[in-house]
Amino acid sequence: PPAPSSPLTPPPTPGSPSHPQGLVTLVTGGASGLGRATTERLVERGARVVLLDLPTSPGAQLAEELGERCAFAPADVTSAEEVTAALALAQKEFGRLDVAVNCAGVGIAVKTYNGKKDKVHELEDFQRVVNVS
């Protein structure tokens, strides 16, 4: 049985993030890792998902496996044109967009400052991390 709700916490209603049935969502980085798990869970719980990931990702295959409630938008999140195309896909396929979940991300495995080498990491590397995340 569901847990009783307290007077301060109303029960989830359909179409809320805790009960996503019927919501149309966009998941960046949706083909792998946390993004893939989010995409799969949302579809499993009745949401429709635009899975946005790099064209080289397994996004097309995953969307096909998940069925008609999932559409793949091949895009790089650092490209305004490609993200705009993904938003247009949400409108075309599902008529709207209710929720965006940002799971795209990259990291770098370098110290900000390496005291032994007296070297600061490259600004371009930091900018890429910020731009994707």
Automatic annotation (TrEMBL):
<dbReference type="InterPro" id="IPR036291">
    <property type="entry name" value="NAD(P)-bd_dom_sf"/>
</dbReference>
<dbReference type="GO" id="GO:0008210">
    <property type="term" value="P:estrogen metabolic process"/>
</dbReference>
<dbReference type="GO" id="GO:0005739">
    <property type="term" value="C:mitochondrion"/>
</dbReference>
<comment type="similarity">
    <text>Belongs to the short-chain dehydrogenases/reductases (SDR) family.</text>
</comment>
<dbReference type="GO" id="GO:0004303">
    <property type="term" value="F:estradiol 17-beta-dehydrogenase [NAD(P)+] activity"/>
</dbReference>
<dbReference type="GO" id="GO:0006631">
    <property type="term" value="P:fatty acid metabolic process"/>
</dbReference>
<feature type="region of interest" description="Disordered">
    <location>
        <begin position="1"/>
        <end position="29"/>
    </location>
</feature>
<keyword id="KW-0560">Oxidoreductase</keyword>
<feature type="compositionally biased region" description="Pro residues">
    <location>
        <begin position="1"/>
        <end position="17"/>
    </location>
</feature>
<dbReference type="GO" id="GO:0008209">
    <property type="term" value="P:androgen metabolic process"/>
</dbReference>
<dbReference type="Pfam" id="PF00106">
    <property type="entry name" value="adh_short"/>
</dbReference>
<dbReference type="InterPro" id="IPR002347">
    <property type="entry name" value="SDR_fam"/>
</dbReference>
<protein>
    <submittedName>
        <fullName>HCD2 dehydrogenase</fullName>
    </submittedName>
</protein>
